[in-house]
Write a structure and sequence with these properties.
single chain; mainly alpha; Endonuclease III, domain 1; Endonuclease Iii, domain 2; 12 helices; about 60% helix
């Protein structure tokens, strides 16, 4: 349900859907018309079709057990690279990183701000692999944290660099701070602007307070 749809829209549908189909067996035995009716209004109806087919596949050919490994998950209807990694990480605590738009944006800004598009995807994957902590629970926490960082702090249109806990290592933030420092005295003195030094101090303080979080382990 969360594919290309915000959480706020999904919440109501999610609970109603689970009430109607509490088990995979219930979903697998439902008619396509019933499943579509339960999905009505959420859009992207192909997702409902694939979810129904997935339930039938798991019940009929996998003894009702959803696989926990990404390669096996990708064999199921409607499960692509990202969804397989997300399910493996969040449902089974496997050591993989699902790279969605938010995660990709954080990794690109922090480590690959000048990378060309052709090489970017593989570089993001390598960075995610290197950063991922060992141990399923730690990996789960890291993935949750970096997704939240992208959703709430390192946002697409207006990144909140001043409160970002990884600003000190971020290529984009460091470059932007350098541009601000090199601005003319008149530009630096404009009302409403904070100096690079004060922003660095603020970010540094936040990094110290959050140093025990998953992103710093």
């Amino acid at each position: 349900m969360l594919q290309q749809t915000q959480v706020v829209r999904v919440e109501g549908y999610y609970h109603r859907f689970l009430t109607r189909y509490p088990t995979l067996e219930d979903l697998a035995s439902a008619s396509p018309a019933m499943v579509r009716e339960s999905w009505e209004g959420l859009g992207y109806y192909r997702r409902a079709v694939n979810l129904h087919r997935l339930a039938q596949e798991v019940v009929q050919n996998r003894a009702g057990v959803i696989p926990s490994e990404t390669e096996e998950l990708r064999r199921l209807p409607g499960i692509g690279r990202y969804t397989a990694a997300a399910v493996a990480s969040f449902a089974f605590e496997r050591e993989v990183t699902p790279i969605d738009t938010n995660v990709g944006r954080v990794l690109r800004r922090v480590f690959h701000s000048r990378a060309r598009s052709r090489a970017l995807a593989r570089r993001l994957e390598r960075s995610a692999e290197m950063l991922l902590p060992r141990g399923g629970r730690k990996a789960w926490m890291f993935n949750q944290a970096i997704m939240e960082l992208g959703a709430l702090v390192c946002t697409a249109r207006v990144p909140h660099c001043g409160i970002c806990p990884v600003r000190a290592m971020c290529q984009t933030a460091v470059r932007e701070a350098g541009r601000t420092t090199s601005a003319s005295p008149r530009q630096r003195a404009q009302p409403g602007r904070t100096s690079p030094q004060s922003r660095r101090q603020s970010a540094g303080g936040l990094a110290v307070r959050r140093s025990s979080g998953p992103l710093h382990r």
